[in-house]
Structures are given as C-alpha cells and as structure tokens.
Amino acid sequence: MSSLLLQMALRTESDIFVLRQRGREVATAVGLEYQDQIRIATALSEVARDLVGAVGGADVTFHIAGVEEGRPALRVDLAPLRPLDESRCEPQSGAVARLVDSLELTEDEGVTVIRMSRRVPANAETLTPQRLAELRAQLALSAPASALDELTVQNEQLIAALDEVRSHRDELAVLNEELQETNRGVLALYNQLSEELEETNRGVVALYAELDEKSVQLRAASESKSRFLANVSHELRAPVTAVIGLARLLADSASDPLTDEQARQVGLIRSSATDLLALVNDLLDLAKAESGRIEPDWATVDLRVVFGQLRGTLRALATRPEVELVVEEPPAPATVRSDEALLSRVLRNLLHNGLKFTEQGEVRLHADLVDGRWRIVVSDTGVGIPPELHERIFEEFYQVPGSASGAGTGLGLPYARRLAMLLGGALRVASEPGRGTVFTLDLPVDGA
Ligand code: ADP
C-alpha cells in the first residue's frame, strides 16, 4: 500500500528544474533531512535529464510507501512516455543510484517505470492518513518556481556542498595529524611494555631456578629423614625385641619367683616394650614406603581370597558383641592386578581402625566395580571424624584428640595411603562425627 502525494508531468528541459524543486519540497515535507533532500533532488534531475533526452519525458508520481510495515519511505515513480531501450538507459547503475536507498527499473501494472526510494525518519504514527492528506493539500497549493529560481537554489546548494567538502578535507588533515601522534604514542608504549615484559620474564626465570633448587633440597631433606627413620628403627628393633624376651624370661615360672610387685613391674616393662616394637615396626614400614624402597610384587589377585583371609584374621579382633564385622562377597570377576600382601595391609589397617573406633553397630567391607575401577569401601558406624580433620589424620603421628583409641601410633593411615598410591590407587575418607566413617580405596583393575 502506498499513498500518492503529488504527480506531475516531465516533458521539457525546464520541467527538469521543476521536478528537482518539487522533489526537494516533497522530501522536506515528509521530514527528510537537508542532505537527503539534496540527494533525492539531484537523483531526480539526473534521471529526468536522461528520460527527456531518450523518450521525450515521463509521468512522475511521489508516494509514501511502507507505512504499514513501520518503515516508511518516500517513493518516486517515473513512467516513461515511450518504451525504454533498457540497454541504453540503466539508471540503477552508477553514481546516481548511490544517492538513494534503491533505484530500479520495475514493472507496475504492465508499464515499465523507474522507481527510486529513500527511507524517511518519520514513523507510522506521525504519517497518519490525515497527515498525508494535509501534505497532499499543501503540495498541491505550492506553485512551482521558475527554472531560474531553481537554478539559483541549485547554485547555492552547490556552493554549500563545496564548502562542506573543504571543511571535511581540513578535518581530515587534523585527524591525520592526530592519528600520527597517537601512533607515535602507541609505539613508545609498546616499546616500554616489551621492556617491562622482558624484565618480568627474567625475574620469573630466576624464580623458577630458585624453586627448582629448593625442591631439590626438599627432596634431599625428605630422603635423609626417611633414611634416618629407617636406620634408627632398624637399630632399635633388636634391643627392643631383646627387652621383651628378657621380660618374658623373668616372668617365666622356671626362673626365680618374683614378688607380686616385681611381677607387675616386669609386666609393665613387657607391654611398654611391645608398644615400642609396634611403633618401631610401623616407622620402618612408613620410611620404606616413603623412600620408594617398596616394590609391589604385581600379580593377579583374587579379591575373594583376600576378603576371606581378612574375615578370618579380623574376627579375633571383633570382640565386642555390639559390633558386627561384615565382609561382603566381592562381585565377579573379583580380580585385580595388584600386590596381595600390600593390599591386605591397607584393608586390614582400615578394618582394624573401624573396629577400634566403633562402639556399636557394624564395620563393613564392600567392593564394587565402577567405570573399570575397583572401589573398595570400609565403613563403620563409629565415632566419626570432624570434617576439618579429614586430611590431618593422614599425617604422621596425628590422632584425633579425644578419640578413645587406646593403643595406636598414628602411623597407620599415612602408611595405608602410601601403599594405596604405590598400588596405583587412592585412599579417601568421608565421615561425620557420631555417624561413622567411610574409607574408600580406589584401585585400577589393571594395576598402576
Ligand atoms: P592409629 O589408629 O594408630 O591412631 P591411624 O593413622 O590409623 O593411627 O589413625 C589416625 C587417627 O585417625 C586415629 O587416631 C583416629 O583418631 C582417627 N581414625 C582413624 N580411623 C578412624 C575410624 N574408622 N573412625 C574414627 N576415627 C578414626
């Protein structure tokens, strides 16, 4: 849908001026800005000149189109008086076309027309049918001025356009100057930044060298600690074993009889020495594991066998009638590539702890295959461990304060975690005080 604003005939040279002037008037009336008014007027006069020369003129109509879609445009149709030789008249190509949004040859009710259009900034609300009727009336009233008048106007416009071009050129020169200035600034900044970067890089490199050196020292320190522990505990083992033997001898019925007090004191010596031996053995194990001196003896291990043995050996420890030891049957195929002795050590340690720290309920061993890995879980319904201590219990000698443990060295869990790592797996804990503890040993089915 479009609504007609104005129509006029283009026949002679002087009509070209009139068309130009009327084009400008219509453009002004529909709200196009000054530059656009000149553009459309110029495009019209260029096309009009061609038409007068080639086919003796045209009938020209001005419309407002596209109001319904909310993108109104001023549309001008020039219907040539005689059929156009399209090969000679191509208004849509060239500089004129650039002055408007579209310029095309089109078919309108069987007649070929040249159609140009330019979007207007007004919207559908301002271009109401009533407003368009007013514009139509206004344009019909205004009489076209003479060709000379239009020429004067055109000259003025030309001068203004020239002025504008000149001022644009001056602006361009200023901009160019500024750009060069900015470029110099950027270059200087870039150089400065590169220097700073280089400086920082040197610092980082030095820092890394220092870090490397420190970690070498650290490794050396840790190795000598392990070596010291291994040596000391090894050296202590023989005398402590001797003390235990001697105490047993003293208390033996074949020896001279002891007074009750003496027998009590010898008993104390013996139990202390036994504790000491346990500590020394644990220390030796841990030191060996830390120094990397334990080489797992890889083989295909049947978990059913391991679990069976644990069930047997730990039953003796599960002396409280309120606590049940449940060793579940692992699902088939219950095999894993591992070191049977080391794996048993880890599980025995965890089960032993479970029995130690559970007053009531159960201690359970359970295995599952999840995503191609064994998840072996030791859970209990015991005292539990506060969340903030979940990592600390894996530190050497750490024991949760107030946990009614009795005997213990605080070395079991660090050792168990070491072994788990040696076996290619990991040992994690989840626990809540008062609700029990869950240790999970995660092992790859095919070993490390
Ligand atoms: P130990 O048992 O010889 O004291 P561990 O390294 O095996 O040493 O354990 C460290 C500490 O972690 C224990 O003293 C105890 O406080 C806590 N702990 C370990 N296992 C459990 C468990 N199943 N329930 C509650 N606390 C536990």
Automatic annotation (TrEMBL):
Sorted UniProt keywords: Coiled coil, Kinase, Phosphoprotein, Transferase, Two-component regulatory system
Residue ranges of every copy of the Histidine kinase domain listed in the record: 231-447
InterPro entries reported in the protein's UniProt record: HATPase_C_sf, HATPase_dom, His_kinase_dom, HisK_dim/P_dom, HisK_dim/P_sf, Sensor_HK_Regulatory, Sig_transdc_His_kin-like_C
EC numbers on record: 2.7.13.3
UniProt protein name: histidine kinase
Principal place of residence: membrane
Coiled-coil spans in chain: 148-210
Catalytic activity from the UniProt record: ATP + protein L-histidine = ADP + protein N-phospho-L-histidine
